[in-house]
């Protein structure tokens, strides 16, 4: 019996590709769980629910996972709300979790310490985006013609490959246009997103391909939520850059320039930096120094809502890698960007 997030009539379609087709079932407490998509009416995304099914042989189910998909260093399970989740771990004591819903990395631990933040108001209903971790903004960062931050974070992606060479567990997910996405943005595309752990580093690569017959352009970002003590956070690497400060009331961007070596968060911050360097350093105020190194993510966004989200603004900071000048792709062209986040010594 295969674990199937069954193809539905909308963006909920969450199938595991042929590479993993056989027996993607999960063994839990002598029961077999099948992840099934129950698409609501229309083309809203589906809620993925866990249904318990009688199983006479849990070990066969477990073998099915390890033989096909859950290779060494990679597990699959049902996470919050029963949503399919992939977990990577390596011998360096790095771990991360990725939900197929939105292809969002919700957890990254280095030596047991969590470095990403999932908001306490995050919902795991397979309909709304998961607020926290590393959500995708695609095909629009926003604001713009379609919904703020686009649709990639509200739909389920599919797994198309896993590997683990030299203790580097890696998963690749894919999002292909469907009726729902074309209803919002009428283009045919393939987005591939790989996540892997290399030593203590969390690495990602995003690839967008135009498989349409007409050109398209898009903007995108990795909207990373880091755990933080907001009163003590410092971001370096931005001094001298042109930036746009979004006014908390009018939401209008105001042009400014950064003149600080260390950006701190003593008030509402929603700031876009154009042409940011390939390396930024975040001191999260909790004792960790993280280097964010990228190829292809030209811009950066800093966001903390401060008192506009009174209850939980203190515990996170968003340091986002973005591509805000539209990327124009002709048919068959593609674009790639990489991000590596490393816990680093001072
Ligand atoms: O969609 P989320 O996760 O609530 O984030 C919203 C914020 O995301 C940031 O990227 C934007 O710069 C902000 O303007 C916006 O308010």
TrEMBL record:
Keyword Flavoprotein annotated: no
Record EC number: 5.1.3.15
GO MF annotation list: glucose-6-phosphate 1-epimerase activity
Catalysed reaction, written as an equation: alpha-D-glucose 6-phosphate = beta-D-glucose 6-phosphate
Record keywords, A-Z: Isomerase
Gene3D superfamilies: 2.70.98.10
Family: Belongs to the glucose-6-phosphate 1-epimerase family.
The protein's name in its UniProt record: glucose-6-phosphate 1-epimerase
Organismal lineage: Eukaryota, Viridiplantae, Streptophyta, Embryophyta, Marchantiophyta
């Amino acid at each position: 019996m295969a674990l199937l997030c069954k193809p539905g009539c909308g963006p909920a379609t969450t199938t595991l590709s042929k590479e993993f087709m056989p027996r993607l079932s999960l063994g839990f407490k002598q029961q077999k769980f099948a992840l099934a998509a129950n698409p609501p009416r229309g083309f809203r995304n589906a809620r993925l629910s866990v249904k318990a099914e009688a199983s006479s042989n849990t070990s066969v189910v477990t073998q099915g996972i390890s033989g096909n998909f859950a290779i060494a260093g990679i597990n699959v399970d049902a996470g919050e709300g029963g949503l399919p989740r992939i977990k990577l771990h390596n011998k360096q004591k790095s771990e991360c979790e990725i939900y197929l819903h939105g292809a969002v990395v919700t957890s990254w631990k280095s030596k047991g310490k969590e470095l990403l933040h999932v908001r306490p108001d995050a919902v795991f209903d397979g309909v709304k985006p998961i607020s926290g971790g590393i959500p995708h903004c695609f095909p629009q960062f926003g604001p713009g013609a379609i919904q703020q931050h686009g649709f990639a974070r509200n739909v389920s992606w599919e797994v198309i490959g896993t590997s683990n060479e030299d203790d580097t567990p890696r998963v690749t997910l894919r999002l292909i246009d469907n009726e729902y996405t074309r209803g919002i943005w009428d283009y045919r595309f393939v987005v591939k997103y790989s996540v892997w752990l290399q030593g203590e580093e969390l690495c990602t690569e995003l690839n967008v391909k135009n498989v349409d017959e007409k050109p398209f352009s898009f903007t995108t970002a990795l909207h990373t939520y880091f755990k933080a003590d907001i009163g003590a956070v410092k971001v370096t690497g931005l001094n001298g850059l042109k930036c746009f400060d979004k006014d908390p009331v009018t939401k209008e961007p105001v042009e400014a320039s950064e003149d600080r070596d260390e950006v701190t968060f003593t008030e509402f911050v929603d700031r876009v930096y154009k042409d940011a360097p390939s390396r930024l350093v975040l001191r999260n105020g909790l004792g960790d120094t993280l280097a964010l190194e990228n190829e292809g993510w030209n811009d950066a966004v800093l966001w903390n809502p401060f008192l506009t989200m009174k209850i939980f603004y203190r515990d996170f900071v968003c340091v986002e890698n973005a591509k805000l000048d539209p990327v124009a792709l002709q048919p068959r062209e593609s674009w790639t960007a990489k991000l590596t986040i490393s816990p680093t010594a001072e």
